């Protein structure tokens, strides 16, 4: 009798290419996490990527994402300490953003506002960072920090 074949491994999935707009400067890193519903807004999501920050738009590619529903969360880690720095009352000092530009109104966004479906093919998504302290856009940053 021939030996049984091992079970098939699940497909590695396809890339999600995330264009993170409104990155106010080129300091640090833009970090993006793709989270299924049960992990949305958590610190640890199963699919993560990062790229050196670029003033304007920073593109982060996350490979091997299986089909499913996800919420993307991003932050501009300007000082490269691996976390969102917060000020008084927990207000982020660094830019944060969510897929579908889900609104942040006195609390983090709701899953239904950030959720997107990902299939078997590579996918591009785009959303903007929001800054609650300091310069809110690349133009404001440049005006506040003129080249020497």
Description:
- By secondary structure, the protein is mainly beta.
- It is 7% helix and 38% strand.
- It has two helices and eight strands.
- It has helices spanning 111-114, 138-144; strands spanning 14-23, 29-35, 47-52, 56-65, 68-77, 96-98, 115-118, 123-128.
- The strands form two sheets. Strands 2, 3, 5, 6 and 7 form a five-stranded antiparallel β-sheet that branches. A three-stranded mixed β-sheet has the order 4-1-8, with no helix packed on it.
- The longest helix has 7 residues, at 138-144.
- The chain is globular and about 50 Å long.
- It starts with 13 loop residues before the first strand and ends with a helix.
């Amino acid at each position: 009798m021939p030996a049984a074949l091992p079970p098939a491994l699940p497909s590695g999935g396809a890339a999600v290419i995330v264009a993170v707009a409104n990155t106010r400067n080129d300091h640090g890193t833009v970090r993006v996490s793709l989270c299924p519903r049960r992990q949305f807004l958590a610190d640890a999501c199963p699919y993560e990527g990062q790229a050196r920050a670029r003033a304007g738009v920073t593109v982060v590619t996350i490979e091997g994402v299986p089909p499913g529903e996800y919420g993307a969360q991003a932050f501009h880690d300007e000082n490269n300490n691996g976390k969102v720095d917060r000020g008084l009352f927990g207000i982020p000092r660094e830019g944060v953003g969510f897929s579908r530009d889900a609104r942040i109104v006195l609390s983090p966004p709701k899953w239904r506002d950030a959720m997107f479906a990902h299939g078997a093919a590579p996918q591009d998504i785009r959303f903007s960072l929001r800054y609650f302290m300091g310069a809110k856009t690349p133009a404001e940053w440049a005006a506040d920090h003129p080249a020497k």
